[in-house]
Structures are given as C-alpha cells and as structure tokens.
Amino acid sequence: MGIAMARAENKESVDPAARMAAAVAKRLRVKKGLTQEQLGTQMGFTGAAISAMERLIHPVSDDMLVHLERALGGGTGIFEEMRELVRLEKLPEQFREYAPIEQKAVALCLYANHVVHGPFQTEAYARALIGGGYPEPTQERAEELVGGRMARKALFDRKPVCEIELVLDESVLRRVIGDEEVMRGQLEYLAECARRSNVNLQVLPLDAGLGGKYAGARGELNAVETTAHDRVTYLEIGDGSLLITDRAKVSTYIQRYARIRAQALDPRRSLGFIEELAGARR
Q1: Which sign does the torsion angle of CA 115, 215, 108, 15 carry?
Q2: Residue 275's closest CA among 198, 214, 191, 196?
Q3: From first to last of its 282 residues, what are the pLDDT tens digits of the chain?
Q4: Is the dihedral of CA 272, 274, 280, 282 positive or negative?
Q5: CB-based contacts of 27, cutoff 8 Å, min separation 6
Q6: Helices (H) and strands (E) in the chain, counts
C-alpha cells in the first residue's frame, strides 16, 4: 500500500512538460515497434528505467532527453526543445518567469550581498548552499536545483555575447559556504570569471558605508537589458520574487545599481582582492 501511494504521489507531482515528454516518447517508441527493453538498449538505459519514465514514476531526466532525441527524435529536435521546458519546471517556482529573460539577456547588471550570484557559483558551492537550505530538500530535488543552477552558466559563452556586470559585497567572499576547500574553489572560480572579456566583476568593500552612504543597503538586485532593448528588474524576496517592468521603477533600480558600482573597488583591484583571499585559504 505504501509503495502504491508513493507511486501515485510521484505521478501527481510530475510537471506538464515532463508528462508531455513521457507521452511523446511512448508514442514514438510504439510507432517504431520498439519494446521498452529495446529502446533502453539503444539509449544505454534499462527497460525498467524507460518504463518508470513512461509511467511517470521517475520523471524524465535531462540526460534521458538527450538520448531520446538521438533514438526517437529523427532529427526533429523535439526532445531538445522539451529539455528547455523540463529544465524550467525544475527551477524554483519564483524563478521560472525570470529564467528565460536572463538566458536571452543582452546585458545583466547584478548585485549580491548574501551569497555568490547563481551563474557564478561552483557546483560544490551550489550543492552546499542548496543542501543546507530550509526546508531541507530531498537529495533528488537538491540535484535538480544544482543542475538548473549550473545550466545558467551558458550565459558566459553564449552567442551573441551577453555583457555581465556583477558587484559582490565583500561579506559574500568572506562567508564560508560548505568548508574552506569549497570556498577556496569558489574564490578561484570568481577570479577566473573576472578575467572573461564579457564580465566586469567588482567587490563592494565592507568600509563602503563610511560616511553613512552605503548604496547596497536595500539588498540584491538584477537589472536586465532584454533583446528588445527594454530594461526590467528582478528581485527575490524571501521565497517570492518580483519582476518589475515599470520604466520609472526600473530606472530607480538602475540608478541605485550605478551608485553601488561607484562605491565598489575597480575591476583590477577587485580581481587582486579575490585572488588574495583565495591564496589565504590555501
């Protein structure tokens, strides 16, 4: 009874894109006259794994979608398109509206004052951060979230290029997530990112508030220039989010970001500071 109930709950929790992928995969498999075992052999999976995917016991994985495209897609790219939809469904609900905007952005202006901004996180840092959240996610859900965060790195090498500015509060660099080894790797990766031609990374020092004018006091923000050259702002607040399109409000956030950037160390000094912190952790 317990197993049956668990399977029923799994089916009910499967999102629409994953359901569609399973239904299309089954129809194409049957059309080709393949058994689940035969399809599994072609793809490098077991017949039981194919059965679990089709019956929604275990929702289709990103890796399985890649192999489904090769085995059943017939050059149509149908499962490749579904990969993007399934990836979106695995992201936190409050982030789903913003994710496609981020991936297609012409330019990003970012400020983070709690933890390293998502695409700039190493896998080890992201895994420690997500695994330590509350409520604590299941291991499967944690891996989905880590995978989704790592997929955002496509921004760095995307064509046409995305121009990215990131200001990190010094406290982010000093806050150890995971352990010293994880943090050292994160700092080294940030230095690597800072050397990219399309990335401008700056550090807002802890003494930026001397004189009472601390521009980062109101927290993190993400200002985006879209492909239509409109500007929007995305804010995360607790477990919720705001996507702001009102021009006057967006203008205020962009001006605030400009003040934050003006108080930060210049890119060369910021890189040196990050490299110094990374070296101190060796």
Answers
A1: positive
A2: 191
A3: 444 433 444 555 678 888 999 999 999 999 999 999 999 999 999 999 999 999 999 888 888 999 999 999 999 999 998 888 888 788 888 898 899 999 999 999 999 999 999 999 999 999 999 999 889 999 988 998 999 899 899 999 999 999 999 999 999 999 999 999 999 999 999 999 999 999 999 999 999 998 888 999 999 999 999 999 999 999 998 888 999 999 999 999 999 999 999 999 999 999 999 999 999 877
A4: negative
A5: none
A6: 14, 6
Cα gap 111→222, rounded to integer Å: 7
In 3-state terms, what secondary structure has residue 237?
strand
- The pTM of this model reads 0.78
Query: Which string of b and e fits 66-82 if b means at least 16 CB within 10 Å?
Result: ebbbebbbeeeebbeeb
3-state secondary structure 99-124: HHHHHHCCEEEEEECCCCCHHHCCHH
**What are residue 167's DSSP bridge partners?**
111, 202
Q: Which residue has the tokens 């956030």?
A: 253
Task: Please give the structure tokens belonging to residue 66.
Answer: 């890649």
Q: Which residue has the tokens 């490098």?
A: 44
Residue at 255: amino acid letter: Q
Block residue for tokens 């997929």? 151
CA-atom Rg of the chain in angstroms:
22
CA distances from 20 to 65, 83, 271 (A): 12, 11, 46
